[in-house]
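// run 5 | inverse folding | seed 20
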């Protein structure tokens, strides 16, 4: 089944200047392209989506917008391995591939990857391959259905030189897989209703703000002063609670973003910003993300537990986490895995993630030693809990 590529849209083109000798092709190539334009401007096994905006790593005067003009006698070109062109579809959509018409595609084969992203920051490679080198017509490259907003083509040279040259590109629509998102706590309701309850001394301590944001319209600003003790317990805190109550043997992915204010205290004591606490017991939780001095740490097993990951504390920048857990009090069954800012920083590690006979529940905000005298401010955004990595991406 063939689908027309005639889907030109109004473009916003963001580019940087390129350099080097132009990728001019040959007279024979130009003749062949013009003679087969009508047939080549179709896609095989692809229902094309329109790209609303396009940007690239650079160009030589042949601009990125040329790849959406329904013409094979125009192109985007840039010199250098790793050159990329990126399409924003305007919203998350199900994608199953890309149709690409390569400039001089009948004379050389291009090495390339396809990657997708929902936020324009974290990209996942979904296809690695080489064009056929036999045609200037659109070729379709397929991958397992992914939900994403952006499609990026990265070219790593071709069989003749290091030029990236593409005449047309379309993202291919797919059927969205059934979502297994379990819960969202992203504050887009404009209140705390996505959460089970609050533990705060006053509403300003767990305030929804419109800036800074990691996504959407609202984020949570958590503020703690020395003496804040809304539940008459140890330490000082203001936290949101979600009774997730993950069963032993269950497996989930959690995505969340955290930003520490520029004046966040530097103290050699504990300052928890995310924890899975055990029901029916006091003491340190089985899973806790916290700051100690100038480090962010992930501790498993309570006190003392095991510090399974740590990284330098960065203030004033959003920190993105994807936390993959199998919940179990059995260290041969339970495990944790962590992505930080789009990179796998903790490969799957088997460890007990629950205390025997006790379910866990989620607490987000700031909980710290009552010896800390300075004000502490932490921002939270984008909480999602799902059963697959795709759910939270």
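// decoded
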């Amino acid at each position: 089944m063939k689908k027309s590529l005639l889907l030109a849209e109004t473009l916003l083109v963001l580019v940087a200047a390129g350099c080097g000798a132009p990728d001019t092709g040959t007279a024979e190539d130009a003749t062949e392209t013009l003679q087969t334009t009508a047939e080549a401007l179709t896609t095989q096994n692809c229902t094309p989506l329109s790209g609303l905006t396009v940007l690239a790593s650079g160009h030589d005067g042949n601009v990125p917008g040329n790849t959406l003009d329904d013409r094979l006698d125009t192109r985007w070109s840039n010199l250098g391995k790793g050159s990329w062109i990126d399409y924003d579809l305007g919203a998350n959509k199900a994608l199953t591939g890309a149709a690409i018409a390569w400039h001089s595609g009948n004379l050389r084969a291009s090495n390339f990857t396809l990657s997708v992203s929902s936020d324009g920051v974290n990209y996942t490679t979904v296809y690695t391959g080489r064009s056929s080198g036999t045609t200037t017509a659109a070729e379709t490259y397929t991958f397992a259905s992914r939900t994403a907003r952006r499609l990026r083509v990265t070219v790593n040279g071709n069989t003749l030189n290091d030029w990236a040259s593409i005449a047309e590109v379309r993202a291919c629509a797919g059927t969205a897989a059934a979502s297994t998102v379990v819960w969202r706590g992203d504050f887009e309701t404009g209140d705390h209703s996505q959460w089970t309850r609050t533990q705060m001394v006053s509403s300003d301590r767990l305030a929804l703000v419109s800036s800074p944001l990691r996504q959407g319209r609202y984020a949570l600003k958590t503020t703690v002063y020395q003496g804040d003790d809304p539940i008459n317990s140890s330490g000082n805190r203001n936290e949101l609670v979600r009774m997730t109550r993950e069963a032993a043997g269950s497996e989930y992915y959690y995505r969340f973003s955290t930003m520490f204010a520029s004046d966040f205290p530097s103290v050699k004591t504990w300052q928890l910003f995310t924890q899975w606490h055990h029901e029916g017991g006091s003491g340190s939780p089985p899973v806790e993300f916290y700051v100690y001095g100038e480090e962010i740490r992930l501790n498993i097993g309570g006190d003392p537990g095991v510090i399974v990951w740590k990284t330098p504390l960065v203030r004033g920048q959003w920190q993105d986490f994807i936390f993959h857990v199998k919940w179990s009090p059995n260290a041969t069954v339970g495990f944790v895995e962590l992505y930080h800012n789009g990179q796998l920083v903790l490969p799957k590690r088997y460890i007990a993630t629950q205390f025997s006979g006790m379910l866990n529940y989620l607490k987000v905000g700031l909980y710290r030693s009552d010896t800390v005298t300075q004000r502490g401010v932490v921002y939270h955004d984008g909480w999602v809990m799902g059963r697959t990595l795709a759910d939270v991406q």
